[in-house]
Amino acid sequence: MESTFNNSVVPLLSGRIYIGTFEKSLYNSAVVTVLADTTTELICYQSLNKVQTQTTTFQTQAGRYFTYNINLNLPYVYFTVRNNSATNQTLLNFSVIYKNIPDNNKGTLQIWNDSASTGVNGVSNPIFLNQNSANMTFFGNVDGGTTLTFQISNDNINYYDSQYSLTASSAQDFGFSIPASSIFYARLKSSSDVTITAYANYS
């Protein structure tokens, strides 16, 4: 079911915020999609009584589709989207679809596409795991040498390098798997400025 109280296609001025409306969801998951031409901050608010809330915060990158399944464990939910850049937006697509998904957290996500370079120490789109996944597999290809480092975070703001990385010496396909239990957020970091296509499977 698509939300009618938490969606917008109206671009935001710099520093401005879109505030959705509390709605009662009978589903256990919200599929949230954001595409904007600036960086944005997305916050999901869940509540038992519309007074006290628990929040989940995401930082999204400019020009990239951001799509996540958010587990809903309280009956009321709403979302905010803030343009946290110094530039006015000319593009914003924000939508929420509620659905029931199995308890096991399996999925796949394209975390890098080949439309732009990564930049030195550039990072992929984040993956929201909410401690529900035990294993992750990354695969794709790069057009030059780089080291891809698996990073983890509790808040999607402060990320830390893990002991897991893969080094490509030249243009090549890649793939590697790692354990991912008790992790909230994850992403990859590229040591060099390369063009990359990368996918993440988690289960």
Properties at a glance:
Jelly Rolls, five-stranded antiparallel sheet, Immunoglobulin-like, globular, 203 residues, mainly beta, 0% helix
Description:
The protein has strands at 17-19, 23-24, 29-36, 40-47, 53-60, 66-71, 76-83, 92-99, 107-112, 122-123, 127-128, 135-142, 146-153, 160-168, 172-179, 185-190, 196-202. The chain is mainly β and 203 residues long. It folds into two domains: 17-99, Immunoglobulin-like (Sandwich), CATH 2.60.40; 107-202, Jelly Rolls, CATH 2.60.120.1110. A hairpin with a 6-residue loop joins strand 13 and strand 14. It is globular, with a radius of gyration of 17 Å. The mean pLDDT is 88.
Lay out the secondary structure.
Layout: E1 17-19, E2 23-24, E3 29-36, E4 40-47, E5 53-60, E6 66-71, E7 76-83, E8 92-99, E9 107-112, E10 122-123, E11 127-128, E12 135-142, E13 146-153, E14 160-168, E15 172-179, E16 185-190, E17 196-202
Antiparallel strand pairs: 1-7, 2-7, 3-6, 3-8, 4-5, 4-7, 9-17, 10-16, 11-16, 12-15, 12-17, 13-14, 13-16
Q: How many H/I helices?
A: 0
Tell me the major beta sheet. 5 strands, antiparallel
What is the H/E string? EEEEEEEEEEEEEEEEE
Number of strands: 17
CATH class of the largest domain: Mainly Beta
Compute the CA-based radius of gyration: 17 Å
Q: What best-fitting shape do the alpha-carbon axes yield?
A: globular
Which stretches of 5+ consecutive residues score pLDDT under 50? none
What distance lies between the first and last C-alpha atoms, to the nearest angstrom?
25 Å
Fraction of residues in H or I helices = under 10%
- Classify the fold: give the CATH topology of the largest domain: Jelly Rolls
Portion in beta strands: over 45%
CATH architecture of the largest domain: Sandwich
Q: What's the pLDDT, averaged over the residues?
A: 88
